[in-house]
Design brief:
The complex is a heterodimer of chains A (480) and B (250).
Chain A: H1 3-12, H2 19-24, H3 33-42, H4 47-62, H5 102-110, H6 115-121, H7 135-146, E1 149-152, H8 153-159, H9 161-167, H10 178-186, E2 191-195, E3 205-206, E4 221-226, E5 231-236, E6 248-249, E7 252-257, E8 262-270, E9 283-292, E10 298-306, E11 310-313, E12 316-319, E13 325-334, E14 339-348, E15 354-363, E16 368-377, E17 385-394, E18 400-409, E19 415-424, H11 427-434, H12 440-456, H13 461-475
Parallel strand pairs in A: 2-4, 3-5, 4-7, 5-8, 6-9, 7-9, 8-10, 9-11, 9-12, 10-13, 11-14, 12-14, 13-15, 14-16, 15-17, 16-18, 17-19
Antiparallel strand pairs in A: 1-2
Helix pairs in contact in A: 3-4, 4-10, 8-9, 11-12, 12-13
Chain B: E1 2-11, E2 14-24, E3 29-33, H1 40-48, E4 54-62, E5 65-66, H2 72-77, E6 80-83, E7 90-94, H3 95-109, H4 117-130, E8 141-142, H5 148-162, E9 166-170, H6 178-191, E10 197-201, H7 205-210, E11 215-220, E12 223-228, H8 230-239, H9 242-249
Parallel strand pairs in B: 3-10, 3-11, 6-9, 9-10
Antiparallel strand pairs in B: 1-2, 1-4, 4-5, 7-8, 11-12
Helix pairs in contact in B: 5-6
Classes of the chains: A alpha/beta (480), B alpha/beta (250).
């Protein structure tokens, strides 16, 4: 994608006349009502949106950050964060790949990222590096034909306010939790997807096509709605390390599936782990929730995540509709000194609902991981079924893996199964491979990939290949 | 091909091998027998490079190279392969994948490129048929859900594909019924060649009826105390180990 086109995409969000203002604005750190009003104005939002944000802000002021997670981190000074940052000017970006951190380029190489994409990912301001074929345009035409809406959340608030208003905050209310409240007040970016009745989205939607240059939104808000009998597969993230000066990422993702609809949400994310000492590593505190609102609706979360210094996320499903299905497939990898407290919540409300949880954790280095899962069967959830499998793999003897499963079963006809294993990369398995001539790192990688197979096969194919490469890169040097 | 001289090995605080000497030449089949705890498995484990064993004295030379200086995978790539007594399961890793990775590692060490897929499939199917294994097992995870017999046959299959220079088979007959043992024995016999040596560690003479050794060694209390030809094995079968112990002490 040519960088001019990327620039255009970015500028479109501000097409209502704010372009010059945006480019020269720097907002000082700190958060109060005026910051929020500023954000809303910059985004050209209608009045109700500002009100909604302010409601959230007032709730947030009354809340305290949660402290129950199995995580250790210094408290965050919320007044020291800048809540609005303009996209980087072309002059401020690297002017060629030569100016990009060589380690970053090395990673792109190892992950098999095509050459022509590397400059874009590194935020290089280069003109004629890429083909002039506009991939974005073809993509948007196809979607338009199908009637699928896919745009930034800011654009959606301006262009499709009724739709947004109908669904925003209905899955994750403003006061749901501390970080969701903060997000609701200050979100500046994210995706909006609406798939009309009976439509199967003709292609996988990827955030790559909605990229806003070198700034990943710190407070992203995504809303995906599938109307009756609609289907969509959404890919979030990419394996290239996401560099960002912003340390705190508190995103909110809401999914709504009406009758017979299916939403597949896949995430392969590799947060830039900071420098060798982990300085500058990202805190990833995300609220992701799917509402299986209609009968026979289905929502699947599939994720492979690594890199963030601290990860705190529980993609969840509310199984309201009769015979609705919720799925969660996850591989969480931690190395170095990373920490993760992640898992899922499956809330069975309607009758004959089903949920499947397959959570794989791989801990290496001196990292620490916790799986925290809730399976809740409500009193009216007759015939509910859950299957949970959580496995941890420890590499080396300095890391930790913990499991906190919660089961709240309020209906006697429910069947809930739980299996868990924890194992160390068995020395015997390693010896077996090496005694066949397979090098140590290759052997670890083989065993780890075998361990993750159940999750990888749920990923859209392109992601599955990237995910394997990502795993290998992350675990490099973790043995011996 | 293999020269073990005055080998002393300790596990933790326990001394297992106390000055073991052994020479194996190309083209030969040697059998190592002995009572439990004598150190038979220790010998093959140490040569293969397993962790946890400390060589306190002695040398091991493989084709003139100092084995103790080589990493586990280097020894394997040089052609020194161990057939495990208790093959481990590796969930999620398909047999075919392991075989291919191992074969390509060997080829890379020899400066050859990776084996083309059709050639590999042909090779593997051929050898699977020899070992009377249904090709479907190739799609299963390594040793997962395999019976004892299947695991041992898998070990030999890997040998047939990887073509080692020295194959060390640690109690390859344990847990096998007569039919399985015959299949395994046939596989091992097909490995015999002027360029290859085979070291069999076994408890039971019966295997040696099918794989006739050139030399038989008796390992007692960490040392080889007696060597002979195949008749020695028969004598052990008839008389047990007691008389050797007496002879040694005397």
């Amino acid at each position: 994608m040519a960088s001019e086109e990327m620039e255009q995409l970015v500028r479109r969000e501000y097409k209502q006349g704010f372009v010059t203002d945006i480019e020269s604005d720097t907002v000082p750190p700190g958060l109060d009502e005026s910051t929020i009003a500023f954000i809303s104005q910059k985004k050209g939002e209608p009045g109700w949106m500002l009100e909604w944000r302010l409601e959230a802000y007032h709730q947030w002021l009354k809340m305290t950050p949660p402290s129950w997670a199995h995580l250790e981190y210094p408290s965050i000074d919320y007044q020291a964060i800048s809540y609005f940052s303009a996209p980087k000017k072309p002059e401020d970006r690297p002017q060629s790949l030569d100016e990009v951190d060589p380690k970053l380029l090395e990673t792109y190489e190892k992950l098999g990222i095509p050459l022509h994409e590397r400059a874009a990912l590194a935020g290089v301001a280069v003109d004629a590096v890429f083909d002039s074929v506009s991939v974005t345009t073809t993509f948007k035409d196809k979607l338009h034909e199908a009637g699928v809406i896919f745009c930034s959340i800011s654009e959606a608030i301006r262009e499709y306010p009724e739709l947004v208003r109908q669904y925003l905050g209905t899955v994750v209310p403003q006061a749901d939790n501390y970080f969701a409240a903060l997000n609701s007040a200050v979100f500046t970016d994210g995706s909006f997807v609406y798939v009309p009745e009976g439509v199967k989205c003709p292609m996988e939607l990827s955030t790559y096509f909605r990229i806003n240059a070198a700034n990943t939104g710190q407070f992203e808000r995504t809303l995906i709605v599938c109307d009756k009998r609609a289907q969509v597969s959404y890919l979030e993230g990419c394996t290239a390390p996401q560099r960002d000066e912003n340390q705190l990422h508190a995103a909110v993702v809401e999914l709504v599936a009406l009758e017979d609809a299916y939403i597949k949400y896949s995430t392969v994310q590799n947060w830039y782990p900071g420098d060798e000492n982990g300085k500058g590593g990202i805190y990833n505190f995300v609220t992701k929730r799917g509402d299986c609102r209609g009968d026979r609706s289905r929502i699947s979360w599939t994720q492979v995540e690594t890199g963030s210094a601290i990860t705190w996320k529980y993609p969840s499903c509310m199984l309201r509709g009769k015979e609705s299905v919720g799925e969660f497939y996850s591989v969480a990898v931690t190395n170095g000194r990373q920490q993760a407290d992640t898992g899922t919540k499956m809330i069975h409300i309607g009758e004959n609902t089903r949920s499947t949880i397959v959570a794989k954790g791989i801990a290496a280095g001196r990292s620490d991981q916790a799986y925290r899962g809730l399976v809740k069967i409500g009193p009216r959830a007759r015939g509910a079924r859950n299957y949970t499998q959580c496995d941890s793999l420890l590499i080396g003897d300095q890391c930790g893996a913990h499991t906190f499963p919660y089961q709240e079963i309020g209906n006697s006809t429910a069947i809930v199964e739980h299996e868990a294993t924890t194992s160390k990369i068995a020395d015997d398995q390693l010896f077996y491979c090496r005694a066949r001539g397979i090098g140590e790192e290759d052997a670890v990688s083989m065993i780890v990939n075998g361990f993750c197979k159940d999750v990888f096969q749920e990923l859209p194919m392109e992601f599955a290949v990237e995910a394997e490469a990502l795993l290998n890169v992350t675990l490099e040097g973790s043995v011996g | 091909m293999l020269e073990v001289k005055d080998l002393h090995v300790t596990i933790g605080n326990e001394v297992i091998l106390k000055g073991l000497d052994l020479t194996v030449n190309a083209g030969e089949v040697h059998a190592i027998m002995g009572p439990n705890g004598a150190g038979k498995s220790t010998l093959s484990a140490v040569i293969a490079g397993k962790d946890g064993y400390e060589v306190t004295q002695g040398t091991i030379l493989f084709e003139g190279q100092d084995v103790l200086e080589m990493a586990i995978e280097e020894r394997a790539r040089a052609g020194l392969l161990l057939g495990f007594q208790y093959p481990i399961e590796i969930p999620g890793v398909k047999n075919i994948y392991l075989l291919k990775a191992a074969l390509n590692a060997q080829r890379a060490a020899r400066g050859e490129g990776e084996i083309p897929a059709p050639e590999f499939m042909k090779l593997v199917r051929e050898k699977s048929a020899e070992m009377k294994m249904d090709p479907s097992f190739l799609q299963r995870a390594v040793n997962e859900g395999f019976s004892g017999g299947e695991k041992k046959r898998n070990e030999i299959l890997q040998m047939l594909v990887l073509q080692p220079k020295l194959a060390m088979l640690d109690e390859i007959d344990s847990g096998l019924d007569i039919d399985a043992m015959k299949v395994v024995a046939d596989g091992v016999n097909s490995l015999r060649s002027a360029d290859r040596a085979i070291l069999l560690v076994t408890h039971y003479q019966r295997l040696l009826n099918h794989i006739v050794p050139d030399r038989v060694h008796v390992l007692v209390d960490g040392r080889i105390v007696k060597s002979g030809d195949k008749d020695l094995a028969l004598e052990l079968e008839n008389r047990g180990y007691e008389w050797i112990l007496e002879e040694t002490v005397a």
